[in-house]
Amino acid sequence: MDRYEVRRLADHSRNLASPHREQPAGNAIAPRHLRDVRTLLKALGIRVLVIDPWNEIEHARKREESTHEYIGRAIRMLKRFGRRYEVAVIVLAHPTKDVYERGKLRTATLYDIDGSAHWFNKPDHGLVIERDPIKAETMVHISKVRFEQTGYRGAIRMSFDSETQQFSQLQETQGELAYE
């Protein structure tokens, strides 16, 4: 593959989720996109695939498939893809809207993501990012860890330095949350 072809695929992959690109109505992720990503993995040695945001990519939902069924199938397909090509797959999905409980805003959970409880049930790891614009702080909640040897549940309080474009941890240790 020549440099021109790699560049074309890289540009194409950036445009898959472009909000300016018309998406098909009501449609797992279009297979041609994963073929393009596979080609880029081999050509550029990419080790992490980030899909951001989930709701802006082109999907290929079957006509008879419910949203719940489709999301389960798509997550299985992405996990299989990650294992096969030894690449970390990260999907950024947003809750349907701000989440309230008894009239008070609460931290969203993986169950609050639009479409399906699969967002909690299927991934090996699940994070919830909560930003507080008033305090200029961000909480990273590690909400799901499937395998004990790969980490533990907890939360990390961080601040963002706009000059360096980096986050820094605000407390020395993170609290471990008990498994439910």
Q: Compute the separation of the termini in Å.
A: 50 Å
Number of strands: 9
The amount of beta strand, in percent, is: 15-25%
Assign the structural class, choosing from mainly alpha, mainly beta, alpha/beta, alpha+beta, or little secondary structure. alpha+beta
Mean pLDDT metric: 78
The tally of helices reads 4
Describe the 3D structure.
By secondary structure, the protein is of the alpha+beta class. It has a domain at 1-95. The protein has 4 helices and 9 strands, in the order ααβαβββαβββββ. Strands 5, 6, 7, 8 and 9 form a 5-stranded antiparallel sheet that branches. A two-stranded parallel sheet has the order 1-2. A two-stranded antiparallel sheet has the order 3-4. Helix 1 packs across helix 2. The chain is globular and about 45 Å long. Residues 15-27 have low confidence and may be disordered.
Question: Secondary structure elements and their pairing?
Answer:
Elements: H1 3-15, H2 31-44, E1 48-51, H3 67-85, E2 88-91, E3 100-101, E4 104-105, H4 118-121, E5 125-132, E6 137-145, E7 154-161, E8 166-169, E9 175-176
Parallel strand pairs: 1-2
Antiparallel strand pairs: 3-4, 5-6, 6-7, 7-8, 7-9
Helix pairs in contact: 1-2
